[in-house]
Amino acid sequence: MRIRINLSSNEQICFPKGYLKYNQAFIYNLLDRLDANWLHEKGFVFEKRSFKLFTYSDFLEKRIYDREKEVFIFKDRFLSFYVSSPVDWILQQTAANVLKSELVRIGSNLLTIDSVAVMKEPEFSESVQKIGTLSPITMHSTIEQNGRKFTLFHTPFEESFSELINRNLQKKWTALHNEDCRYNISIKPLFNDEKHQKITYFGTNKQTRTLIKAWAGRFEIAGE
Asked: Which residues fall within 8 angstroms of residue 35, CB to CB, at 6 or more apart?
């Protein structure tokens, strides 16, 4: 299930680097309190991992980056983004509660709820599909050297990129359905250069935000 949330403002809309953490908090705040607490603190468990099983896109509208103020500015004063989940109650609560609110705050922006649209489920007639990213894809491993842990980001040109995505999805399947996943998926880029790499941040505090290396563009996915 996937919904699209549309918002607008009478004022200029701007966000600092790492603003997608605001979107995450916005979704949690829309869930019923007990469910939000359970999802944030426990979630869907596989071994020692906890999965939240929802995802959201970046804002779909164009923006410019003001280097002096270090903010992204959306000149059209309109924002929209997708929220997706295989767990119906997450999106049902999100959609229902956002419609109860005339005004919401994301970061320092006070926004009006224009509409919430439930998107039609896509139909896949073939096991190989070409897709385009709404947000860049990232995949990383944590490695240890000399007693210190480091984050190793994988590129789509490495076999490990597809292998790790496949394993990640299998873990989430098991966490959701409580049974082993017998399906596999592979993904490969339909580009061959580094210009599709995107360096971004999660979190707005310069001291604590997380740097992320991700990839945007068109990919080919094969599987069930």
From this structure: 89, 93
